[in-house]
Specification:
Elements lengths: L1 H14 L3 E2 L9 H14 L3 E8 L4 E8 L7 E2 L4 H14 L9 H5 L10 H5 L19 H8 L11 E2 L4 H14 L3 H10 L30 E2 L1 H12 L3 E2 L2 E2 L4 H6 L8 E2 L3 H4 L5 E2 L4 E2 L10 E3 L7 E5 L4 E6 L9 H22 L7
Length: 360
């Protein structure tokens, strides 16, 4: 009977979804872990991770499910947007750019296109068509792509319509290059990669899955990162520009970042709207507050391959759902975003009732 019991237990263990990583010392996170594990099993992913950090930057929960690692370097798709936005906001804080700077003044654009501001580019209300093939061409430069974008007919006057897409940040990145006289990779390296201690391999590519193309980097979706690296970005975001005691970006810019700059703008293409969520956009991040959002304390930047980071200052934590589904994109954004929504109140309760003991 003992041998049969052991065999049955072994069978159950083999059938259960694999999970590994640092488990919390208390039972506070048991509901969080169970919800994530069950969602992972139901979705049929090969691998997924969940990392949670408290308001002091202590990692209080981390679990890997299936074949995944928090140190695996992966393309993070639209989670790149928040990183690009923070890089540009640091230039604004240093006075090298202004949110009111126009494409006409910085890039020499003419006509209606020349009236687009950096704030409109960061909030995806520039009026540019949201997608263009030049943003996906590794053989050209950011300057060449931005030049071709300057000739596109606007779909709406700047500031009057929101459309989620790649073109806005591409132009913002070119404005950063002209303002500094440096390439985007050099800008990202000096403004965030080095100060946060990110690996040299944290790079924006045109095609991040290969990876290929750094002269025309896709700011809206081309970054390769690990979960542990992205946690440093969220540390900076959560603490409103302060990283490990050093202020890198002024506090006031985080109020601007978390506020809808054009609350009356028509909402065009909105991926979160497609899955039933009424969240609007700030400066290179989603604001998970009822619109019109003002200094929203819950912000996120989910990506097409499932990588979903967010900060929840009301709940006293920040977190990352890590995964890389490759070409299997159907339903993944909905899965990861709705799972984050489901986890949010559970994490808040765990943070409030847990011991807060850091885990390795």
């Amino acid at each position: 009977m003992r041998r049969i019991g052991l065999s049955f237990a072994l069978a159950l263990a083999l059938l259960a979804p694999a999970s590994r990583g640092a488990a919390p010392e208390s039972k506070a996170f048991s509901s969080v872990e169970r919800t994530a594990r069950e969602a992972f099993a139901q979705q049929g992913l090969s691998g997924m991770g969940l990392s949670i950090y408290d308001a002091h930057g202590n990692k209080v929960f981390e679990q890997m499910y299936g074949d995944f690692s928090a140190d695996r370097r992966i393309p993070i798709a639209s989670a790149s947007k928040l990183v690009a936005g923070l890089t540009i906001l640091r230039l604004v804080d240093q006075g090298k750019l202004s949110l009111d700077a126009t494409t006409g003044r910085v890039l020499g654009w003419k006509g209606a296109q020349g009236a687009i501001t950096l704030e409109q580019l960061l909030s995806f209300t520039s009026g540019l068509p949201p997608r263009d093939s030049c943003t996906l061409r590794p053989g050209i430069t950011l300057a060449e792509c931005a030049s071709s974008l300057s000739k596109l007919k606007l779909v709406a006057p700047p500031g009057s319509r929101f459309d989620y897409g790649n073109t806005h940040l591409h132009v913002a990145g070119r404005m950063a290059e002209v303002a500094t006289g440096k390439s985007w990779d050099a800008i990202f390296g000096s403004q965030l990669r080095a100060p946060l201690g990110l690996a040299p391999q944290a790079i924006f590519y045109t095609w991040p899955r290969r990876p290929e193309g750094t002269t025309n980097p896709l700011l809206a979706g081309g970054l390769q990162m690990t979960m542990h690296e992205y946690a440093k970005v969220l540390d900076l975001e959560y603490h409103r520009g302060v990283y490990r005691g050093q202020r890198l970006i002024g506090d006031a810019l985080f109020t601007r970042q978390a506020t809808e700059p054009y609350p009356d703008a028509v909402i065009g293409d909105t991926p979160v709207g497609h899955i039933g969520l009424n969240y609007h956009y700030g400066l290179a991040n989603w604001l998970e507050c009822a619109p019109p959002a003002v200094d929203c304390p819950v912000q996120s930047s989910p990506g097409a391959f499932g990588f979903t980071p967010w900060v929840d200052r009301t709940g006293g934590y920040y977190a990352i759902l890590g995964m890389d589904v490759g070409g299997r994109r159907t339903g993944v954004v909905k899965f990861s975003v709705l799972l984050a929504q489901q986890l949010r109140p559970l994490i808040r309760e765990a943070i409030k009732t847990g011991s807060g003991t850091p885990v390795p």
